[in-house]
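Schema walk-through. Below, the input block comes first and the output block second. Nothing else is stored per chain. Lengths vary across the set, and this one has 334 residues.
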Amino acid sequence: MATLADVARRAGVSTATASRIINGSSKPVTDELRARVLAAVAELRYVPNAHAQMLARSNRNAVGVLVHDVSDPYFAEITRGLQRVATAHGRLVIICNTFREPARELEYIDLLHAHQVAAIVVAGSGYLSSDDETELHDRMAAFETTGGRIAVIGRHSHTSDAVLPANEEGGFLAGEHLFELGHTAVGVIAGPAALTTTADRLAGLHRAAAAHSRTLTVVHADFTRDGGEAAAAALLAEHPELTAVAALNDSMAVGALAAMRTCGRNLSVVGFDDMPIARDVTPALTSVRLPLTRLGERAMELALTPPPDSTPRAEHIPAELIRRESTWPLPGPR
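--- output ---
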């Protein structure tokens, strides 16, 4: 593999000159020297070191994005918005899958810090554990002291620019819808208990239940289709009195529908996020809509546009209930 020194020798220049040309330094060089160096790069098939290039340039052109799992439709939609804005600003996006592991998030923040990215967008949920959130706060604060910017999606303890989806209000809308339809025995398939997103959506459902003097039967599962299917099967087996289920994301709701087909039950089901697949399943899924692509766009815009002063900005994104065929009134008086 060719080295920078090989390129410099082939072009007949110093390694410093070759480095400046390859890494896009703002220091002037003649067109003739530039052509010689670039020709040597092509002939030798030299691949520049990305870290060295970033150190050599006077501006940071990459942005880091932390998601729990980009294969999750929720994060795929958010990432689409993030990348759309980053591309419009001429930025490269480094996507890091943390798989909901706080230790992995710390490692990625350190890695992105070392690569001197311009900003980091934390798109995954915050954690309820104060120890996890304290460590994440310390790493993000250290990144900011070196000129990096932070923006988050959802509730986090770190004070920075934030895009805040109406998770609690969305949970209330889902619960209110089911209770208004006359359901009194409602099960909930919640996500991992350690996440603020789960806690906030569940709090909204509990608020709706309290308003109707009802209680909820809650089980926790992974935010996945398989997690929803397993949780729904357990709910139906242990609580045959249930007539409705609220799942805290659409993937789990799709899994719940599958579990009901398997056991021959027909309950009302409401999901959360209103992913594109919600319209295509049978029955079409009632869901709480969040504009996920817009969440990503606004988070990236905040990350790349410093505020006029040092006051962190918070943008609240509303939720909306989309009624479809998967929920229906319970027969009998309400």
